[in-house]
Specification:
By secondary structure, the protein is mainly alpha-helical. It is built from 13 helices and no strands. The protein has one domain. About 3% of the residues have low confidence. Keywords: Membrane, Transmembrane, Transmembrane helix.
Length: 345
Amino acid sequence: MFGITFLELVLFGQQFGLALAGAASLWGFVFILKGTRYHHGDTCVTFDWLARKLLYLLYAGAAIAILSWAVLLMAMPAYAHEGIVIVPELAERTAALKLTTPVFVAWMLLLLPLGLLSHVTPAQFHRRLTLFYAVHFAVILFLISIPAWTGSMSLRQFFFIGHSAHSIFTLGTVLVLDFLFLISKSSLHLKRHIYPLFPTISKVILVGLGIDFLSVALVFSEAIALTPKFFFMQTIVGILLINGSLLAGPLTRRLIAAAKSGSGKLGRRWEFLGDVAGTISITSWFTITFVDYFAELSLGYGGLLLIYACVLFAAIAVHLVWTRTHRDPVSEQLFAWHRSGGYTG
């Protein structure tokens, strides 16, 4: 349908899962380090609690990636990325699968006992959470960076590395950002700790976009083809840049000011804009990552843009309904964590 094959969907699933798990590992590591700067008190416990929450995203991403990898052991399709038409050869894809399979197996075997340890001896697991996140990030960064292996660190290989690894800093980080925004909506305490991080997180997303552009520049003459898919992708990148300027600019400043003022409330108009801007960011990065994996899309520019608009409006509607009806007892969970002192024993 529309030139989409099943195995291309599986490749996307692996990329999506690794991006989510990698970003959760990255920001979980950052939060643990921020918590260690404060040896006691609310800030230390809050960042420890946030780091623990990101384990859910790590395990969700790992499950998706490992399931997709298991399917890929049987076959490897061709694919294109972000409107760029340089496609790995069969030998390169096969070499990458052979190179990453032992790491996937080791990662899968590592996840199971560590997940069990987090429930059996949570205090000991928490004391090693910094190492846990660091190891996972290193493993995931390697796995996501080798969608194809040319046999040497050539410009073509650097293109594959950058054009895949950026998803941790773009798509994955956007998902983490929205997750943090959602869980903090019912807690002024969390807003005061999370909102000041938004400018830094937004800069990391822009760095990820820069990595992507740099990887394309390495093989520009070979990779670029002025197809409807290419122009559609550049349109979405433009939407992301405009939307990002809103997120990183006036909206972020209002979020931080509202948290500092003690109210934590933006007002209906700005809260609506925040929900919409976050949904646009997630939908756009998801679209770029998803569409890029299909080499033979039969849709033209107008068809792609129409589907994108429909998905975007549907995502905004679902997001608004969810935020208006769902009340996660985050404050209660956090206060219980505070009362127990976190895992400080």
